[in-house]
Design goal:
This protein is mainly alpha-helical. It has helices spanning 10-17, 19-32, 38-43, 49-77, 79-98, 103-131, 137-162, 169-176, 179-188, 196-201, 205-217, 224-242, 255-271, 274-287, 292-316, 322-347, 367-386, 388-398, 405-433, 437-456, 489-501, 505-511; strands at residues 349-350, 363-364. It has one domain: MFS general substrate transporter like domains (Growth Hormone, Chain: A, Up-down Bundle). Helix 6 packs across helix 19. The longest helix is centred in the N-terminal third of the chain and has 29 residues, at 49-77. The two termini are 31 Å apart.
């Protein structure tokens, strides 16, 4: 990869790297539009309850393993190359799904795809956080969420269109299209630069500084911003090396606070219950008396809403605090869950044979309660798209130090996927056993997420990823008193520029040994 020209425009880098997120989106909705089709139900013998839960959660099971291996691979090979490695798992998993001959091979293929998603979902945000400028970091990472959502939307309607194909060719054709984004990603990756912070971490200082200069200053290694930021990176790495290695570094000297923040924000993203809608909205809308193709089209609208409102956040995310979005988003999602659950509990009528023969949907509401369920299901997705969906990935990528980011983000993704797997297994049986009460459970969990966000998540917006470390140190101000912005980098850049103006550049050059070009 090193011999190919590198394109360092951060938006281009983000658009290529986040195709890894598009793979995630493809795999999510590769089931959503298909699970209610006659072709799928007939071929796989109308799976329901635990069996359908196993199919739905197989992706998350593989992602748990992918997240486990992602950190060590990323630290050894680099962020970019770990994403390339993940693509190989996707190619094999997709091939197995396309050739499936029953339940076991379908689950196996989704597990293999999940290994890829486990690696990319943890390391793409790491890569983007380490590449992006601090004032655009949220916007760059949110492209990952947009890629996921575009993948969901595209694959959902591919699945919907393939529903008109007779027999197993219907779902085989839909699943076969998953090769396309993976191949595109593998073609684009060699043109991306390595993370300058990873290069610094492994001792490749000259390459790190040049890459940093290419990203921040058009290749000028003497730029004041490059010098100031490199000083921060090198000082932080020196302190991290003194702190030692091994798993203890995740709990020593206040690091446990960052570990808790990174893991919990990812866990809450799943426990918020939004993915119940993402994965199973066709089931929810069947409960609301929508059936057949109308159900699939109406359920598909959520993915368009997802894209529209996450795109809105693309323009505002770096001007809006992370804390406020996590706190108010959790409360609003909880309210939506309570309304949906209240309608299903109060007005739901049991349908023992399943609505339209779907063994996973055993209650139905009609009239105004049904419209309320549909409206608040959409509202839940809108709030999620504006808040927890993008911000959980951004926040989890920001809280780690350079020395712990790859493994730390892998641990955070591990929390996400463990709960994703658990909820994937839990949801279909819950639809059968506790019915509308499942949404009450998620509403309570959303309140819990809001409480933790308020008391333990300091504001990271507008700060360099080195400055974020200070927010978690012993004696730092309480999380609820922290504010966005206030970066010291501007003052450091000004000091460097002043030194340059006074002819003291030689002193600065000694701080960057062998890296800055001589005048």
């Amino acid at each position: 990869m090193a011999k190919l020209p590198k394109i360092t425009n951060t938006y281009f880098v983000a658009m290529v790297a986040t195709v890894g997120g598009m793979l995630f989106g493809f795999d999510i909705s590769s089931m959503a539009a298909i699970v209610t089709t006659d072709q799928y139900i007939d071929y796989f013998d109308n799976p329901s309850g635990v069996k359908q839960g196993a199919i739905g959660s197989a992706l998350a099971a593989g992602s748990v393993f992918g997240s486990l291996i992602a950190g060590p691979i990323s630290d050894k090979w680099g962020r970019r190359d770990s994403i390339m490695f993940a693509c190989l798992w996707w190619l094999v998993g997709t091939a197995v799904q396309v050739a499936t001959n029953g339940f076991a091979s379908l689950v196996a293929g989704r597990v293999l795809n999940g290994v890829c998603v486990g690696i990319t979902s943890s390391q793409v945000p790491v890569y983007l956080a380490e590449i992006a400028k601090r004032e655009r970091r949220g916007r760059i990472i949110i492209i990952q969420q947009l890629a996921i959502e575009w993948g969901i939307l595209i694959m959902y309607f591919i699945g919907y269109g393939c529903g008109y194909i007779d027999g197993p060719a219907s779902f085989r054709t839909a699943w076969g299209t998953q090769f396309i984004p993976c191949v595109g990603l593998m073609i684009g990756l060699p043109f991306l630069p390595r993370s300058p912070r990873w290069l610094a971490k492994v001792g490749r200082e000259e390459e790190a500084i040049q890459t940093l200069a290419n990203i921040q200053a058009g290749g000028d290694t003497r730029d004041a911003l490059v010098i100031a930021e490199w000083r921060e990176i090198s000082e932080t790495l020196a302190l991290e090396r003194e702190s030692g290695s091994g798993w203890r570094k995740f709990i020593k000297k206040g690091m446990w606070k960052r570990t808790m923040a990174g893991l919990s924000v990812q866990a809450w993203q799943q426990l918020s219950g939004a993915n119940v809608m993402v994965y199973y909205m066709p089931y929810v809308f069947q409960m609301a008396n929508l059936t057949g193709k109308i159900n699939l089209i109406t359920a598909g609208v959520q993915y368009a809403l997802f894209i529209v409102f996450t795109t809105v956040m693309f323009f505002f995310i770096d001007n809006t605090g992370r804390r406020s979005l996590l706190f108010w988003g959790s409360l609003a999602m909880g309210f939506c869950h309570f309304v949906v659950g209240g309608m299903l509990r109060s007005y739901g009528v049991d349908v023992p044979g399943g609505v339209d023969g779907n063994a996973n949907v055993v209650i139905r509401v009609t009239g105004s309660p049904a419209y309320t369920v549909i409206a608040f299901s959409y509202l839940l997705i809108i709030v999620y798209a504006l808040t927890l969906a993008p911000v959980a990935w951004i926040y989890a990528a920001e809280v780690w130090s350079t020395g712990t980011r790859a493994t730390g983000m892998a641990m955070a993704a591990e929390a996400n996927w463990l709960f994703n797997f658990a909820l994937g297994m839990f949801t279909p049986p819950a639809f059968l056993n506790i019915k509308g009460n499942i949404f009450i459970v998620f509403g309570v969990l959303c309140i819990g997420a809001a409480i933790q966000a308020w008391f333990t998540y300091p504001e990271t917006c507008g700060k360099t990823i080195e400055e974020v470390e200070e927010l978690f140190k012993k004696g730092a101000m309480p999380a609820w008193k922290t504010k966005k912005g206030g970066s010291r980098l501007e003052a450091e850049v000004a000091a460097v520029q002043e030194a340059k103006d006074k002819g003291k550049l030689d002193l600065l050059e000694r701080e960057l040994p062998g890296a800055i070009e001589k005048a």
